[in-house]
Amino acid sequence: MSTPDESTTPGLAALVRAEWSAFRSRGRMAALLVAALSVIALAVLPALGSHGSCSQGPVEVPCPTDPLAPDGRPVSDLFFFAHRPLTGDGSLTVRLTSLTGTITYPPPDHDEIVAGVVPWAKTGIIIKDGLGQGSSYAALMMTGSHGVRMQHDYTHDTAGRPGGVSAQSPRWLRLTRTGDTITGEESTDGVSWTPVGTARLAGLPATARIGLFATSPGDLTLAPVGLGGSVGQVRFTQAVGSFDSVSTTGGVAAGPWSADTVGELGHTDWEKFHRAPGLVSDGGTLTVTGSGDIGPVGTEGGRTSKDTLVGLFAAVIVLIVTAARYAVARTTTGTAPSGRQLAARGLVLGGAVFASGLAAVAVAVPLGTKLLRDRGLTVVPAGPLTELRVIVGTAVLLALVAVLALALGALLRRAWLAVTVLLAGLVLPYLLVVVPLLPDAVADWLLRLTPAAGFAVLQTLTAYPQVTMHYAPYAGYFPLPWWAGLAVTGAFAALALGLALRRAPEPPNATPVDWR
User: Fold this and answer.
1) pLDDT digits (tens, 9 = 90+) for 419-447
2) Distance CA 336, CA 364 (A)
3) The pTM is what?
């Protein structure tokens, strides 16, 4: 038989039902609707107000798009290629005696050129599935500052020996094809060889192209903005590789080297009037000049699913205000909510926000992405699982923010104070970071140590060390993985809720609740 005290103490389920009835009978459901519509509307309106177009003189033409790798990802595939057909198995061996280049001088002296190579300038030997951009390849190369590398199919990178190259310290390179397997080796004397790596190029045709290449990505400089922040600027560069002792075995065709560009080169003033991309043969020395890059691309000129969720900020502000006011709302008896009632409010609020946020984001992301593409804008694709993770993760983030606001409101016992604290500690840091206004180091720490860390759930891009990019939050690169960012925001919410529950009054004659 229940004691009188036990009979007057409602269980958690009863409290949740009561709080849900109170929650949906007032204007809080309208607030959730406003937040959801903000997410959807601000995914649609920017897309409708944008239009991507390109022209050739007065004629508007479709904008060029990035080539696609065999796995469907957008890539950069732009270089000069001196090549011969390779039928079946065979190998190419060369001695590289120099890697030089040029870099456009910084503004305002755009016409000045300085000698030098950027860290990821590349020259070496390559096997490729034809001349089409995005086709499968394996390459063994010397880089500007990262020594010998073997790379294949745009994302794979294996390090060889560090150091540079000169006529006094040449580098010997060898690529060997055996079926679909490509083996890269290097040597300092052409006698003793050290393996660098292997690659399997599935579906490599019986006749591929093998030869010498040169490419050089733009030189990244950072222009100061805001309060110490910076944005990336890219300068044109060119790489020149000199080879001798070129020999082939197996199915490599004899005869002269064919000279082609993969992609379009030669359009800059420097290339037109000073040094064009190409191949120069002088006795036994082959000199190859090129620019561009071979690898995955980042967000240059492109959008991601993050750009479809600009309405998230409006939704977060609405939810913070709603949750903070809900925290200090009196119960039906006119008293402040007890600890058990506060816990019930957290469950009701978190569940309602998650459900409404999930519905809104599930509409906003695919709809906004489609509209951006329809307007001629480039959208960096994300796989279906990544897109699903962004949708669900964003709904979880909204629920955590709402619970954090509820807990702060109950802990501080002033709705306006809780709103102020969260605007300063969550919304403002993220806005300062994505604009960008702050130095990269400060921005990184803000997105590690504040509740704004949870916005990492919006990240869909991968940072590749072998790709020259400004890996900063404004460009879509966050310092924490998505799950770690959510964990930081969740930890803030859990801590605030725990402190609020300890401080909340208990109803008179209350007995402990069985939480099982």
Assistant:
1) 999 999 999 998 888 888 888 889 999 99
2) 38
3) 0.84
